[in-house]
Design goal:
Helices cover 38% and strands 18% of the residues. The protein starts with a strand and ends in a 5-residue tail after the last helix. The chain is an alpha/beta fold. Helix 2 (51-61) packs antiparallel against helix 8 and helix 3 (75-81) runs parallel beside helix 5. It has a six-stranded parallel beta sheet with strand order 3-2-1-4-5-6. It has a single domain (4-149), classed as HUPs (Rossmann fold), CATH 3.40.50. The longest helix has 13 residues, at 16-28. The chain is globular, with a radius of gyration of 16 Å. The protein contains eight helices and six strands, in the order βαβαβαβααβαβαα. Helix 2 links the parallel strand 2 and strand 3.
Length: 185
């Protein structure tokens, strides 16, 4: 069986940046399979919506992918208990710059390669500073992604102000947010 990619996150809400990262990672890293993993109880940042609602939104955003809920607060625990053999765990460049602060980063790299999405003009020295401190820097794979200036917090703010989000979020997710009245003040 080929290489599996894992895209994890809070997905509060899932947006076009997540979808673009997944699509580009599959191409650039020749992933045979991509699994989207929703952190039901994120360990580092609180989510606005409950885990089950975010899981349903992620399923709408990634209809062609396997979407799972994860009850582990930390990535290393997910990787230890998950069914994947040597997957590629996908992160953005900013997340990678904080990788040394993760729980057991060396163990994360033993269990999975990291697929790091960079964007044109991203300061390479920031990435190199992290790589230099890793025992297995060869387990980090970089790929470039065209920048999409989208953030989940910005989307939630737009919804709260009654502004449209159709250009930022997949249409089925927009419809479900509207239907359920999510992120309303």
């Amino acid at each position: 069986m080929g290489v599996t990619g894992i895209l994890g996150g809070r997905f509060d809400p899932p947006h076009n940046g997540h979808v673009a990262l997944a699509r580009r990672a599959v191409e650039a890293l020749a992933l045979e399979r991509l699994v989207v993993v929703v952190a039901l109880e994120p360990g580092h940042k609180q989510a606005v919506l409950d885990g089950e609602t975010r899981l349903e939104l992620a399923r709408l955003a990634f209809p062609e992918r396997e979407v799972l809920g994860d009850g582990h607060p930390r990535t290393v625990d997910l990787l230890r208990e998950g069914p994947w053999r040597d997957p590629v765990f996908l992160v953005g460049a900013d997340e990678f710059c904080d990788f040394l602060d993760w729980k057991e980063p060396g163990e994360v790299l033993r269990l999975a390669c990291l697929g790091v999405a960079t964007r044109p003009g991203y300061p390479r020295e920031r990435l190199d500073a992290v790589l230099a401190r890793l025992a297995q820097p060869e387990r980090v794979l970089f790929f470039e992604l065209e920048p999409l200036p989208i953030s989940a917090s910005g989307i939630r703010e737009r919804i709260a102000r009654g502004e449209p989000i159709g250009d930022l979020v997949p249409a089925p997710v927009v419809a479900e947010i509207d239907r359920l009245g999510l992120y309303q003040p």
